[in-house]
Amino acid sequence: MIGVHQSRRRNSSRVMHLLRYFTEWKAILGLFFCVTICLVSWPYRPHMDATSFDDTPSHAQAYSDAMHWQSRSSFTAEDVPGVTAVMLSWKRIKNLQNQASLLLAKPYIRELIIWNNNGDVTLHPKEISVNHEARVKIINSPSNIFCLGRFYACRDSNYEICYFQDDDWFNPYMDSMLHSYLARPNLVHSLTMDIIYWEQRRWAAYNRAVHMYGGFTWLGVGSYVSKSLVERFLKQIVSSSMVGDDLLVSDMFFSLWTNTFPVQLEAALVPFRQSEGWSNKPKQCLGRPDESSCDQWTIVTETIAKAGRMLNSSLTQKHPHFLPNADSESDFLERHTRAPCANDLCLFESSDYPFPLPSEIPFQAVASIKEQEEAYNMVGMPQGWAAYHFAVDGHPDTCWVSAHRNHNQTEYFGLDFVRPLLLGNIHILMHASASSSALASVSVNELLPLHVQVNSEKWTIAPSSSFHISYLPKIGSELIVCPDDTCVTRQHASRKWNLVTCSLKNKCQTLGSPGNGKRQNHEYVRKILIMSTRPSVYLSVCYFDVGAFET
Hints:
The protein is α+β, with helices and mostly antiparallel strands. Helix content is 26%, strand content 23%. Strands 12, 13, 14, 15, 16, 17, 18, 19, 20, 21 and 22 form an 11-stranded antiparallel beta sheet that branches. Strands 3-2-1-4-9-6-10 form a 7-stranded mixed beta sheet, sandwiched between helices. It has a two-stranded antiparallel sheet with strand order 5-11. The longest helix is centred in the middle third of the chain and has 21 residues, at 296-316. The radius of gyration is 25 Å and the shape is globular. The two termini are 15 Å apart.
């Protein structure tokens, strides 16, 4: 069913010099942003279908369940290149141990580097993982260099792909995210929750005149990046003469300074135990004598705006290591990967993008990103947005709804499988409504359309020509389009939902029927795309169930 997760290194003399310069309150502020920045969304926790892990028996069981889930992988060690996982450490040793067990269960995580920013504690690999000690590398920093440790650890890794993970979030979508990364390895691929995804649509840095197409994303919930991007970022830090507080919050600069729009996937997130986080004490002034001057969110919005201004200036002046990107704008329009499936076996795709495009809001030299947010709001940010992941979260009562914002895109939705599947029937639980006043009085049956046959069964069955289905085979790049009668629609007796069943058996080209008890001419499918023939209809997709042929 698709419901659809030892050494001690010397720091550079430049960094050590800067660290000696920092005051204590700056250090603590940097730690807050680097390790627990995603907690700014804590008021939105009710939107997450989340389990928080701590040391209580019930949560210990939840962790055990998570370990079982994470230990499964669609990949083998031979399938994909090796990946280095990078984590920062401060005080949550138990979290590190839990995360290490989860990360090292993945066959492609060949190395785990932990940058220990706590100079009062010396960590050893055996403390982190008894069974995988040889794959764990500890860098005990004599001083706290905060976010920079993430990038220095990646730079010193043995593999060309780095996976960043904070110790207070569990990512059950690592396989599908890696699948997304391998399709576009030049981009940052990150994970976030729906409300943060919505918010960060407004944090782009767009200026066509200098080929500036920067997008923002947080890194700590889980993100894949190439080592080459990290190496370039460290050169950017030096060439831009970044100093002081900006070094402490370098995470806020990284994705923007790649000068690409990151692939940001949205999903329900799972927090680990988050005690010992500075965000648990929101009224504490983090060492400053005047609590009234401690406005952490202002620092976030002003720093992101500063990162955009510096990127724009560096590209204008053709600064070393800041590269114009002529292809990013068109690539952004062609990217339709939206959310991981709940079981980490696929990615939900949709051409529907309900937000203003970055090209509609050229970047201005604003003092705070809040000013740019207002410009996006005026163009029209969607209200009551139904998140993409609701289509594949395994809950039929949560639904993604198409928005039909006109970006000149062919409208479709579908699934991209992490591993090709030998498919049979595809079941989609959904409903439809009119998107124009002209169709407001048209019944759901006519919108889909449905020719209902009343009978005693729970579902009434009728053919439908409202959907076209096509698929990509395991080998090849040409879409195979199925005939119009591939999909049939059944209406639930409650009329709340409709069940669309698209059959690839005996319908699509090259998909022959089994003969003599054996399969003949069936194909493994990498991707399925479902296109509505009624563009004036809002589609609500609530649930996917993909049935494979029996083996």
